Amino acid sequence: RSLLYLLELLLPFLNLNSYNYKPILENYHPIIMINPFFIPTIFIYGFLIYSNIKKMSEHHVRQDYYDATRNIYFNLEERLNNKGSR
Predict the structure, then answer these.
(1) Best CA proximity match to 48, nearest among 37, 56, 36
(2) CA distances from 77 to 59, 67, 86 (A)
(3) Distances from the Cα of 6 to the Cαs of 3, 17, 55, in angstroms?
């Protein structure tokens, strides 16, 4: 059913009737309009992504994440080891 629907959508562009010498897309001219408020957002999002990558590549941030996870796993291991002695 979906393939038939797609074929129906494409039928006017296939131009099956041979007596029509005028192509469908002859007078089709798209007007490309750029929203001027969208242009600064590209730079803003680009800067946010760039700064985030730069932050992730710095060493001390990675060291902080490493220390946090190490403390979490150390406390978990301590709790598991002390469970039997309680």
Answers:
(1) 56
(2) 26, 15, 15
(3) 5, 19, 47
Whole-structure pTM value:
0.31
Closest by Cα among 13, 8, 33, 9 to 24: 13
Expressed as residue numbers, the domain containing 74 is 2-82
Q: What is the pLDDT of residues 6-20, one digit of tens each?
A: 777 776 666 565 555
DSSP secondary structure letter of residue 71: H
According to DSSP H, which parts of 1-86 are helical? 2-14, 38-57, 59-82
Q: Provide Rg for the chain, Cα atoms.
A: 31
Is the pLDDT reported for residue 82 higher than 60? Answer: yes
CB 13 within 8 A of CB 24: yes
**Long-range contacts for 60-67 (Cβ within 8 Å, ≥24 apart)?**
none
User: For the chain, what is the domain count?
Assistant: 1
